[in-house]
Amino acid sequence: AQLQAYGGGLVQAGGSLRLSCAVSGRTFINNLGMAWFRQVPGKEREFVAASSRSGNRPYYTDSVKGRFTISRDNAKKTMYLQMDRLNPEDTAVYYCAADSGIILSNIRSREGYYYWGQGTQVTVSS
Predict the structure, then answer these.
(1) What does each C-alpha distance from 8 to 97, 109, 117 come to in angstroms?
(2) Which of 17, 19, 13 is closest to 34 using CA atoms?
(3) Do residues 110 and 37 lie in contact, with contact meaning Cβ atoms separated by under 8 Å?
(4) 3-class secondary-structure state, position 7
(5) DSSP strand pairing (9-12 vs 120-125)
């Protein structure tokens, strides 16, 4: 599978953005556990949100709970991250990731994902 993330940009604090991650290739998206991670310079890539293969339960890091929503449209082979009430601490490069063999104990771990998109920059101004 190939992943392409897009939708980043510059937004003021309190604003919203929706990121998309398009899946191409012969892999069926409903066979994939998928996630969003983010990274700022000098820091490790951190988990943001994940959707299990069934898509019926989302997982979030505490700092985005209640503000971000992960979802997927299997027909469009696309995963989304709706980001509301953004603040400057959300500024980062956001990456989408996927793996067909992800297990719940690894769903928040970078090491659990084999496929990665190229990243899209999100900048939140104060």
Answers:
(1) 16, 23, 13
(2) 19
(3) yes
(4) coil
(5) parallel
